[in-house]
Amino acid sequence: MQVCTNFYKMLSVWGFLTFITTTLSAQNRLQQFDDRIMIDLAEHRTREKTGYVRFISDTYRYGDVAVPAGLLVAGVISKDRNMRENAAFIASSTAISYGLTLLIKHIVRRPRPFENIKIVPVYRAASSSFPSGHTSTTFSTATALSMAYPKWYVIVPAYLWAGSVGYSRMYLGVHYPTDVGAGALLGVGSALSMSFMRAR
């Protein structure tokens, strides 16, 4: 009986060590993937492209505010209740995404790429890296807008904009690909979680 108990203990320890080793190995491979992409992007920057990408990155501030504000104003002027409700839906989704991003950044505290690898960022962003706040809020705005107005001429530009902002964060050297991917998922999830506010 004692032999069986000891065997199961050893098996449990071995299983736990195998799990930890596999997890660390996967994380290490993921970090190497992140690092390779960041180094490649940094090595292929040009002055012209950098100026354009910086502009795209900065549009998140205006898009996240202008989309719901524009709908609200248009809804008030035209006395369209659905448009006003959709404005509240989009604004709430983006606000939730922003709040969750700040919370996760505070918990995870992942260093920025330029703190870990030898790349020169276009500028040095503050706070921590995971997830990308620019990406989470733009994907939340794009998803909520696409849900409110499911037309191709709304969906395609909205996601092109959000995707471009996500790419810009990597190009500028301030976020890893996994930061951007997590931000996109968080943004989409935030919009989906607030879908009960969408006008029917």
From TrEMBL:
Gene3D superfamilies: Phosphatidic acid phosphatase type 2/haloperoxidase (1.20.144.10). It comes from the Bacteria. It is a multi-pass membrane protein. Residues 1-26 form the signal peptide. Pfam families: PAP2 (PF01569). Keywords: Cell membrane, Hydrolase, Membrane, Signal, Transmembrane, Transmembrane helix. Residues 87-195 form the Phosphatidic acid phosphatase type 2/haloperoxidase domain. It is found in: Cell membrane. SUPFAM superfamilies: Acid phosphatase/Vanadium-dependent haloperoxidase. This is Phosphatase PAP2 family protein. It comes from Mucilaginibacter antarcticus. The lineage of its organism: Bacteria, Pseudomonadati, Bacteroidota, Sphingobacteriia, Sphingobacteriales.
